[in-house]
Design a protein that fits this description.
By secondary structure, the chain is mainly alpha-helical. The chain is 72% helix and 0% strand. Residues 56-505 form the Major facilitator superfamily (MFS) profile domain.
Length: 553
């Protein structure tokens, strides 16, 4: 028996460390480059059975599907608001459609924006699971008010506000829940479920709208079918949340240790020493925070690293919206008309394919790349690559303008721009689409996570509204300059990521939320963009866990 093992006190767990990696400074620049291009095999998770945690995250991410479906079903150009049956039922003219559409968008986003700060006390007092359940019920009530044959736009608008309240709360709490439930080795992958569900929701809304428009008669059922499906999806989410477990991290903050232990064992499908060490690490961090800064006060958010992280969360989702991808999702037919000419059927078909490309790209990212490269590398490289596609699109449109009239044959220049847009959305769903959701939760310790994520998601809703409202005017007045503007934004985002972003991949939430990780950024040096979590960090995590278990905490 190893002499180190003999020295361990009863009840402690000995974890044999792996062979340490050479320091980054000892690697040549060629070796660093090769680690990016031909990376090592990604280390396997500590737990062999990932089904329970994947199930929890997948059920919670039905909220992401609702987000995408709700965004697309009404606001998508060519959606429910364009149906004659909808206009006849609510008695408004085509001339009023823009006004009605604007209110449908703004009222829902207003409700979501208001719900973000309101979700903080709800999540803190009643837990993540209960907050998501309440959000799904509130959303369902709003969807019912939109679906009933009221013949009243006022009733429909109230339903939009209520559904926005439920949706806003869920978009704050679900990323926290996913981050807190996931093992650190695959936290990026499971956290990216939210974006994948969002893209699937938008894709579904495109084809449901198209299906009822083509295959159903112009009656009340034509518009009620796509709107009413929201009730089904939110009901499935509510029922699903009754079957999963509460976040062990939240339970520990409430001193419900036995329940936290049972939940962690269930979600990890294990009762081995790894679970005990993880539980001990969480407990140590939560108690250290509690004793060091007991009594949370709002002035804490105005000082030091906490303010930096709040600013980073706000900027993160501002950057996500400034890439232009959300505007493409809402107004893809108008964009494709600008690129290929005024053929409504062709534009709708290209938009449907656009939605499919988003789903496939995001699925590929979750399966292949979510935790393979560092967050910083994915975000920075994604921004620069998106900038290239947008600038190329702008250059082609500037030099080879497309005839605004409908044409049977699409010219090669138009085909090239469509290919660039499809490439753009693929890159987006490999970087700025999915990653901000888990990354925002990783920036904060347990003490500040509710507030931090609420600030970030509030930014998402605020600038979602800004770019959604402004995009039609940009397309009309700027034409090809719209793509150039998105490209310039992407360049700024790329450099901002390199200079200001911190790295959180492979760290436990407790370590990722420490001010030292934010200030020093020691986990992601240039040239070590792809790296496995260091054996020293894994060993220190487990060593800390053993010490806590020995002390009886």
């Amino acid at each position: 028996m190893d002499s180190m093992e003999q020295k361990l006190a009863p009840g402690m767990v000995f974890v044999r460390p792996d062979t340490p990696e050479p320091p980054v400074s000892d690697l040549t620049y060629t070796t660093r480059l090769l680690k990016i291009i031909v990376p090592d095999r990604h280390p396997p998770p500590r737990y062999s059975n990932l089904y329970p945690v994947a199930l929890c995250c997948a059920i919670a991410c039905i909220a992401g599907f609702l987000f995408g479906y709700d965004s697309g079903i009404l606001t998508f150009v060519g959606g429910v608001l364009t149906l004659t049956s909808f206009q006849d039922h609510f008695n408004f003219t085509k001339a009023q459609k823009t006004h009605v559409s604007s209110l449908c968008v703004s009222l829902q986003q207003l409700g979501a924006f208001v719900a973000c700060p309101l979700s903080i006390p709800l999540s803190r007092k009643y837990g993540r699971k209960s907050s998501i359940f309440v959000g799904s019920v509130v959303f369902c009530i709003g969807a019912m008010m939109q679906t009933v044959p009221s013949h009243s736009l006022a009733c429909f608008y109230v339903g939009r506000v209520i559904s926005g309240l439920g949706l806003g709360a869920m978009t704050v709490v679900v990323p926290q829940y996913n981050a807190e439930m996931s093992p650190k080795e695959i936290r990026g992958r499971l956290g990216s479920f939210f974006q994948m569900a969002y893209t699937l929701g938008i894709f579904t809304s495109y084809w449901v709208d198209y299906g009822v428009k083509v295959n159903m008669e112009s009656t009340e059922s034509q518009w009620q079918t796509p709107v009413g499906l929201q009730i089904l999806f939110s009901g499935l989410l509510a029922i699903g949340m009754l079957t999963v477990k509460e976040s062990p991290r939240w339970l520990i903050t409430k001193d419900r240790m036995e329940e936290a232990k049972a939940n962690l064992q269930w979600v990890r499908a294990s009762d081995g020493p790894e679970v005990a060490n993880e539980l001990a690490e969480i407990s140590m961090a939560v108690r250290a925070e509690h004793h060091a800064t007991e009594g949370l006060h709002w002035t804490e958010f105005l000082h030091g690293s906490v303010l930096k992280r709040l600013s980073a969360a706000f900027a993160l989702f501002l950057a996500q919206q400034a890439t232009g991808a959300t505007a493409f999702a809402y107004y893809s037919p108008q964009y494709f008309s600008l690129l290929t000419g005024d053929d409504e059927t062709r534009s709708l078909l290209l938009s449907g394919i656009f939605g499919a490309v988003k789903v496939i790209a995001c699925f590929a990212f979750v399966c292949l790349a979510a935790d393979r490269f560092t967050r910083k590398f994915n975000l920075a490289s994604g921004a620069f690559a998106m900038a290239a596609t947008q600038i190329v699109t702008a250059a082609v449109l500037k030099n080879k303008p497309i005839d605004s009239g409908a044409a049977k044959d699409v010219p090669p220049a138009a085909k090239a721009t469509v290919a660039m847009i499809y490439l753009f959305v693929m890159i987006y769903n490999f970087s700025w689409g999915p990653l901000p959701w888990p990354y925002c939760s990783e920036l904060f310790s347990n003490r500040y996570r509710e507030v931090g994520v609420a600030v970030g998601v509030s930014s998402q809703w605020l600038f979602n509204f800004v770019f959604t409202i402004s995009t039609p005017y940009m397309i009309d007045s700027m034409g090809w300059g719209t793509f150039l503007l998105w490209g310039l934004f992407d360049i700024i985002i790329g450099f901002g990521t390199i200079l200001l972003a911190t790295e959180t991949r492979g760290l436990s939430l407790e370590r990722a939320g420490q001010p030292e990780a934010f200030r020093n950024d020691n986990e992601a040096k240039l040239g070590n963009v792809y790296r496995r979590p260091s054996s020293s960090s894994l060993g220190s995590d487990k060593k800390n866990g053993s010490q806590i278990r020995e002390s009886g905490i």
